[in-house]
Design a protein that fits this description.
There is one protein chain. This protein is of the alpha/beta class and 233 residues long. The chain has a single domain, classed as 3-Layer(aba) Sandwich (Rossmann fold). 42% of the residues lie in helices and 15% in strands. The protein has helices at 17-28, 59-68, 92-119, 139-159, 189-202, 211-219, 224-227, and strands at residues 8-11, 33-38, 50-53, 74-77, 123-128, 164-170, 206-208. A seven-stranded parallel β-sheet has the order 3-2-1-4-5-6-7, sandwiched between helices. Strand 1, helix 1 (17-28) and strand 2 form a beta-alpha-beta unit. Helix 1 (17-28) packs across helix 5 (189-202) and helix 3 runs parallel beside helix 4 (139-159). The protein starts with 7 loop residues before the first strand and ends in a 6-residue tail after the last helix.
């Protein structure tokens, strides 16, 4: 288990939404330093955060960030894209773009920072997934998050012997800019961030941050028909 108090964390996509809430919550729990990354670090608004330029799909950008943040003990892969490309009609490049950000991006960041965390005595990796990791309702987004979930499960096995614990965070609708046009019950970013940090501190393998995520995860054992009732309508 990893204590937040005294830790040094890096949050990708740390300038808005869940990422910004995570940066705030980390400081509230006593983190010593928090790197908040963004494509444009000027968008990072927390007064104590260390803004860091990062494009997660660019290996050179990832390497530069890892070189600058050599004291990290907690890595949070939060940055993501929401292209929602249709598999039959959208350009295949749109599908690739989603995977570059949502699957390969966090993989590049993790590979860069695992040696850093190891040298600092071990720590924690938190990957931000989605309820759509488990249900294919958003085309390329669902597929990329499903692949990211599988990546997390593999990394959990690979990193345990290296002193790094891994938590996967699954969320449904969260009240951020991305869901502004959706009329549905939404979690607050602050509530999600609190649950995520609880998960880190208790060593949870997964955090299901809302009822929707818990319901869909439970439905995985019920068969395809339970998850996709429209198939039998």
């Amino acid at each position: 288990m990893t204590r937040i108090e005294g830790s040094v964390a890096l949050v990708t996509g740390g300038s808005r939404g869940i990422g910004r809430a995570l940066v705030e919550a980390l400081y509230e729990r006593g983190a010593k330093k928090v790197y908040a990354t963004a494509r444009d670090p000027r968008t990072v608004t927390h007064p104590d955060a260390v803004p860091l330029a990062l494009e997660v799909s660019d290996p050179a950008s990832v390497a530069a960030a890892a070189e600058l943040a050599q004291d990290v003990t907690v890595l949070i892969n939060n940055a993501g894209a929401s292209v929602n490309a249709n598999f039959l009609d959208s350009p295949v490049d749109d599908v690739r773009r989603e995977f570059e950000t949502n699957f390969y991006g966090p993989l590049l960041v993790t590979r860069a920072f695992v040696p850093v965390i190891e040298r600092n005595g071990g720590g924690h990796l938190l990957n931000v997934h989605s309820v759509l990791s488990w249900i294919g309702l958003a085309g390329s987004y669902s597929a990329s998050k499903a692949a990211f979930w599988s990546q997390t499960n593999s990394l959990r096995l690979d990193l345990k012997p290296r002193g790094i614990d891994v938590t996967g965070l699954h969320v449904g609708y969260v009240d951020t800019d991305l869901t502004a046009g959706i009329d549905a019950p939404k979690s607050t970013p602050e509530g999600v961030a609190a649950q995520a940090l609880d998960g880190i501190e208790t060593g949870a393998f997964e955090v299901l941050a809302d009822d929707l995520s818990r319901q869909v995860k439970a439905g995985l054992s019920a068969g395809v028909e339970a998850l996709y009732p429209q198939l039998t309508a």
